[in-house]
Specification:
There is one protein chain. The chain is an alpha+beta fold. About 20% of the residues lie in helices and about 25% in strands. The chain has two helices and six strands; from the N terminus they run E-E-E-E-H-E-E-H. The longest helix is centred in the middle third of the chain and has 8 residues. It is elongated. This is Prokaryotic metallothionein.
Length: about 80
């Protein structure tokens, strides 16, 4: 059994996420989101959807990017 790196739960059905050369172990998606999801630099929400990356900064959507003064950013539908 492996142990979740967020909540410490030892669980027989943990899963690994391999990202940027590191291996993370979680027991559920909510723990994975808590640890791995970027945070919007405007409204501070965790980004679990597409998000918008502008010049190395992450936003939950175009509206927050524009609120931070970024121009020409649109959400894709």
């Amino acid at each position: 059994m492996a142990t979740c790196e967020v909540c410490g739960n030892s669980y027989g059905m943990t899963f690994e996420v391999h990202a940027q050369g590191a291996v993370h172990v979680f027991d559920c998606f909510s723990c994975a989101i808590h640890r791995m999801a970027p945070v919007c630099e405007h409204c501070r929400v965790q980004i679990i959807g597409q998000g918008v990356e502008v010049e190395g900064h992450w936003y939950c959507g175009a509206h927050c990017a524009r609120a931070e003064g970024k121009v020409g950013i649109v959400d894709r539908v």
